[in-house]
Amino acid sequence: MKYFLRRIAFFLATLWAAVTLNFIIPRLEPGDPAEVMVRKLSGKDAQLDPAAVKAMRAMLGAPDGNLLRQYVRYLDALAHGDFGLSYTYYPYGVTEVIGHALPWTLALVGTTQVLSFIIGITLGAFAAWRRNSRFDSVVTLGSTFLGALPAFWIALLLLFAFGYTLGWFPTSGGYEDSIPGWNGAFIGDAVIHSILPAVALLVTTSVAWVLGMRNTMVLNLGADYIRLAKAKGLADRDVALRYAARNALLPSVTGFAIALGGLLGGSVLVESIFDYPGMGRLMAEAIGNKDYPLLQTLLLFIVVGVLLANLIADMLYGVLDPRVRRTPA
Amino acid sequence: MSILEVHNLSVRYEPRAHPPLTAVRDVSFDIAEGEFVGLIGESGSGKTTLGTAVLRLLERPGRISAGSIVFDGRDITHLAEDELRPIRWRDLATVFQSSMNALNPVTRIQAQFRDAIEAHSQLRSDAVTALVRQLFEMVLLDPAFLTAYPHELSGGMKQRVNVALALADRPRFVLLDEPTTGLDVVVQRSILDRIRSLQRERGFAVLFISHDIGTVLDISDRILVMYAGRIVESRPAAALLADPLHPYAKGLLGSYGDPRAETVHLTYIPGRPPDLTRDLVGCPFAPRCPERIARCLAEEPPLTPVGAGLVACHVARQQRAPAPGDDRTGVPERTRGFAGPTFVRSGEPAATERGPTILELVNVSRVFQRRRGLTVHRMTAVDDVSFTLARGRIAALVGQSGSGKTTIARLVTGVDRPSSGSIRFHTPDTTVEVEKLRPRSLRRYRRHVQMVFQDPYSSLNPTLTLGYALTRPLQNHLRLGRAAAHARAVDLLETVALTPGERFLNRYPHELSGGQRQRIVIARALAAEPDLIIADEPISSLDVSIRAEILELLHKLVTERDIGVLYITHDLLSARMIADEILVLNGGRLVERGSALDVIRHPADEYTQMLLDAIPNPFGRLSIDTI
Amino acid sequence: MTAPATPAGEAPGPGGGPQHWYTVIWSSAKARIGIVMLAGYVLVAGLAPLIAPYSGTRADFDPLLPSGSTHWLGTTSQGGDIFSQLIYGSRVSLLVGLFGGLLATVISLVIGLIAGYQEGSVADDALSFVTNVALVVPVLPLMIVLISYSDVRGLPLIVGVIGLTSWAGPARAKRSQIITLRNRDFVTAAKFAGEGPLWIIFREIMPNMMSLVAASFVGAATGAIAAEAGLSFLGLGDSASISWGTMLYQADAQGAVSQGLWLWLLVPGLTLALLITALTFINFGIDLISNPHLRED
């Protein structure tokens, strides 16, 4: 149990660090991002809500007041989910804008992450087991090259080939002719729209798992417990899965959160290429418009998302590896 | 009826990046049903490769390049994995040498028995559990550990699990590859005794691989001696012990002795085994052999019957079973012992007037505290130890792992500090309280106190030359200039018999053998002209045949220089050879101390007696036989 | 005594000792290909003015010319020569790779060495915590936010941000390696030879971790090159110079995808991918030094 408690404590500590980092970044800038935002928003609407101005100052920094008081105000704003107004989507608040985008990204990135993990681990384990075979060379070389391709470039090519040239898939957006909700028509529509972005992300992220899994498993295959398993006359399948792959999987699990971070980074580019209504596209838009409240809040959401994924991966690791779960007295 | 027959087996390693080598060459032997056969040889002799080949577990780049393996009348040399699988474990089981890591770390112990049992029998569910329980009891393990994970077991327990696992499917042949290496002598002993009695009970055949000739002789019916990938002698254990034929076997036997004897002679074999990547001409042992004749250098001796055994040696064959056409010029007289160099230690050290005290431990304790959450675990590594060491004397600190001997070394060298008590280092001018030293004065103190480490493979920096290793202490401690340090380093190399010294200065550690490295480590310790040397198991990671050589060298150098030595070991024989006095440690407490011969001959403490009993002592058996 | 994979044991000579690092790297076919490819890129970047027919920033040609003898890969919609842009773009990628990689490596070395050498101390706890946080914070979004606050968009900013955001993984690897090295007897022996801690770290321990340092440098350089391309594609790149990322940014912004201008899309991405492949191949070779098990035998 101690392991799990320690990981929860680590999660809370990193959460605090991330929230604080989010506080520090805008205040590192020589200018006054909050003031810039207020001025820009005033251009759109003279009747700016004073509460919204206050929230933005809490998020992005105020010229007056000491840092400690600003920090308290910032935490208070966070606690109330008050992130200010989005310049891009004025008069909507940042919370609302992100609230609409979040499910899309969760679905796209979540599915891709799980699929790429499963595909990558399976291919990697198989390549390691058939080490130095033709299958291994093809998978290793193919992964190296595919892993070198930038996800956004693959997205452009997919869009060009399957969107515009062949016309098999829609070229932009998250849905078209359906009304959002839990109905079959909408879900089907959304799935069709997300196939190309998902493939673009899958190609590059799954190969990282392939190479990682292959190399750990090749190392593990030299271990004494694998030799003993072979000497026991167990079926190849058992040795490969229950002995070699089972152990080689462990380091991959610890890389889960880092991979998710990479995937979210890639999704900023890919979503903006496909005009997919998720958080990545919001971020690309926020960059173009210098929409600091939106940008800063998106970063916070992304970081917290990754930290949560990390916590889940840690818990899973504890379940998978008895050595951390049951430390001898 | 032979259960295993090996005919003219050769194994080659053909890695891409290295020159190929023949690790096992033209080896033939057989093992009868229920026979217990020992296979001895030093590291690199090919014994593990041979064992792996017999189990058909060789992996690339190794392969069987010639010969055959016949198991129970069936040639298994080239059987496909699918055909081998049914006979694995049911007929051919094994305990690997590093069994610490032989269990799957993420599965419960029971599951690792279950898959082996279910793969080869009709037993399922509760019947399997019952069998595993029985196997646990057989190796004297608490069945409560059935559901444990490997990391929750101690080294000795893991080893017992591996033995039980090997016997799970009632195999007819078990390969034991150094099954107890790395364990405490006492634990080793009890596991081996258990294996031997189970073997008698159940009647399986065993090939027992070990570098430890004493243990092998103790336990085996017949012995195979391997050198440079070949079997050079095959004899019943008692015959080999009473009358070894091959000079290499004599040399190995000569590295053991009875520490209780008035005078102990230990022989050693100078030189090193041949490079197996090259083609060898003549007998591979000839360059190291004190009995060689001209023919040995030209013609490789075949393994031929002599008396009740086999030997591959021109000299031995001509001495015992001369053939009509033999040219007998130069053939030496028959000897039982190895005709090479010998390290002799007799009686009490001559006229031991004690010099001035150099090191003094007063009521020293070291308690380790480890915090886990809110609870604090205390572990007393050293418990109220007091002793003194005089200049020019060698004191052996003897105990098993966990006895606190290494902790004492760390305390004396200032690497660690005692929880209570005092450690005083005396020079004619001043007294240093070691536990109070600050980093800078600690550096000055280390000019006077140096260490010889256990593992010569990790105590020399692989990226730096030997010249560097020797000149740095000279420059730092003695403030010698570059040229002076260089000249002194050459002297030091020659002092430890690495000549000409110049040729070694620009070498890297990997170019040296283990024995040569350990000489460098000794030379480095002497470089700063210390008053006290801590030698932490300096011979335990070396091959048996050269241990006495290093021990003799160390003994000679420190006595010449009037240096006090704290010699740390688990091995009473080496303590007897080098030390003036012996201090026995158990669980952090000093349980016995006295002059070396006294402690060994008249142990007062039960624990000392136990350590003595654990020393494999084939010669004890011999003396009864021959007297 | 010996494991079956390494039967050499006491035997000295050619089979006994470790090989030189360059022999090990060169022994891998992949690494050989990678080194040759990288050399090609370096050559092209160095000789860009000689190879490229026009300046990379010149944009006064007719827009959207197809590929032909004057413009091998055609022109962009703003009238730039695609081939020349491609050649000059290699300079940005290599510079970002070199300096971004160096910066990340230096930061990771300092943090990894301090934390590792002082393992268990408060300094180590603090540094390890910072490292673990930096490791899980997604790099690209962080870079985006950091850069978007700045009004000046130059290469130094990109290099700086890349260095500051991508040191964590290598730092952790170095920390754990130094911990294993530090507990080797030769480090204790160096203390007995009278060496101070700095000497021990840099003269005794560092040479033993060169393959890790090299691998992490190549890895960081690879990451930096990819990050620059991504940032430039989002319009956060250096506005004064042309890079493969900015080429793709312009291609996307000018509707190259919908208009079927596939050469403009294909070529910059492909050159980028080949450069990253070359670096990955080189790292295969470097990995062999520390992981003999991966050697192809």
Automatic annotation (TrEMBL), chain A:
Residues 102-313 form the ABC transmembrane type-1 domain. It is found in: Cell membrane. The keyword Membrane applies. Its main location: membrane. The keyword Cell membrane applies. It comes from the Bacteria. Gene3D superfamilies: MetI-like. GO terms for cellular component: plasma membrane. Keywords: Cell membrane, Membrane, Transmembrane, Transmembrane helix, Transport. GO terms for biological process: transmembrane transport. The chain crosses the membrane at residues 7-25, 104-129, 141-166, 186-211, 249-274, 294-320. Pfam families: BPD_transp_1. It is a multi-pass membrane protein. Belongs to the binding-protein-dependent transport system permease family. PANTHER family: DIPEPTIDE TRANSPORT SYSTEM PERMEASE PROTEIN DPPB-RELATED. This is Peptide ABC transporter permease. It comes from Rugosimonospora africana.
Automatic annotation (TrEMBL), chain C:
Its main location: membrane. Residues 90-283 form the ABC transmembrane type-1 domain. GO terms for cellular component: plasma membrane. Keywords: Cell membrane, Membrane, Transmembrane, Transmembrane helix, Transport. This is ABC transmembrane type-1 domain-containing protein. Pfam families: BPD_transp_1. InterPro entries: BP-dependent_transpt_permease (IPR050366), MetI-like (IPR000515), MetI-like_sf (IPR035906). It comes from Rugosimonospora africana.
